[in-house]
Amino acid sequence: MATASFPCIDLSLAGHWRGFAGEHSSTFFGFAKLLKTLDDRRPKLVMLENVTGFITSQGGKDFEAAVRALAELGYWIDAFVLDARYFVPQSRPRVFVIGLHESMAPSIAFRKSQLDWIADRWTETVERAHKSIRPPKLLDLIRSIELPTGWAAFDIPFPKGHRLDIAQLIDLDDEQAWWDTLALTKHLDMMNDRHRKLVDDMLSAGASFVGTIYRRKRMGKTQAEVRFDGLAGCLRTPKGGSAKQIVIALDKGRLRMRWMSAREYARLQGAETFPLVANNIQNLYGFGDAVCVPVIRWIDEHILSPVFECDSRSQRKDREL
Fold it and tell me: Are residues 258 and 311 in contact, defined by beta-carbon separation less than 8 angstroms?
């Protein structure tokens, strides 16, 4: 198996939506070139991971270029979206592309019929998936793109595991680097009227709450936006203060704020015991760029391992015959 999480910069606002014309995200083609040079040693399975901007970049043309490049190497393609919020308290939707090489035995993935008028198992499987897993924009691309091999479809269930609340992963002891009154007031003043009122009302009521804050540019003005849904925003690489998450904690009329720690970043990626390095910014960069461990574990359980197990069984049968 080969997997790639190529840079997402050019697939987002950070890279001015340059897409594969940019110098960062276009490194995907280096990965594809490497696969091509492997010839008969080409991996049976390929997996790509990136932000949801991957399917909207350049009106879907970049997504089409990527899946077509894999298909030309002999891979049947499936694609879906999975959000880390179903596993950890972090909003982190990501696009996954799975490529099954044509040399593999028939597997748990259904292949699309070449006859569009046939309602085959592929069509049934694709349409049965939850709309968050196969969103309309992605389905439109899949239906409109013709590949040299074709499209495959895994029967992907909707994740229904128990997820923790963000409060369960945040350290609230007094040893944390809580901000002084000046910094706290500064960020309260950055909130718009609605967010400020929510915080003030909870303080007046003596409520207890743990959440996160992002600083964003809105209409040319920096605003501090609080999440009240038990989730953290998507972890990012810490390029400037706006990309770093802030912890906000209210406890019986007491208000505190601070930067989220690297250990808390690790917990939000499902890697709570991952060893940290001395350079804190390096830690934040690593976790901001990383994949969420429980998400990958879930994909392995429902797709990757079953595919290889099915292929192994088929090979054993062939040898017996």
Answer: no
Longest dimension (CA), the chain: 77
Nearest 5°: phi and psi at 118? -90, 125
> What is the distance between the alpha carbons of residues 254 and 154, in angstroms, rounded to a whole number?
49
Q: In whole angstroms, what is the distance from residue 65 CA to residue 225 CA?
A: 36
- What CATH class does 2-162+292-320 carry? alpha beta
CATH 3.40.50 boundaries in the chain? 2-162+292-320
The tokens of 67 are what?
Answer: 């899946």
**Axis crossing angle, helix 61-71 with helix 28-37, rounded to the nearest 10:** 10
**Nearest-angstrom CA–CA distance, 36 and 69:** 10
Distance separating alpha carbons of residues 117 and 122, to the nearest angstrom? 12
Coil vs helix vs strand at 139: helix
Beta carbons of 104 and 311 less than 8 angstroms apart: yes
Residue appearing with tokens 């002999």: 74
The pLDDT profile of the chain, 321 residues, written as one tens digit per residue, is 999 998 777 676 555 557 777 777 788 889 999 999 998 899 999 999 999 999 998 899 999 999 999 999 999 999 999 999 999 999 999 999 999 998 886 678 888 877 665 568 898 999 899 999 999 999 999 999 999 999 999 999 999 877 899 999 999 999 999 999 999 999 999 999 999 999 999 999 998 999 999 998 888 888 999 998 999 999 998 875 567 899 999 998 899 999 999 999 999 999 999 999 999 999 999 999 999 999 999 999 999 999 988 877 776 766 666
Q: Which letter does DSSP use for residue 164 in this model? A: -
How is the chain split among helix, strand and coil, in percent rounded to 5? 45, 20, 35
Tell me the three state secondary structure of residue 225.
strand
Quick one: tokens of 313? 């069984």
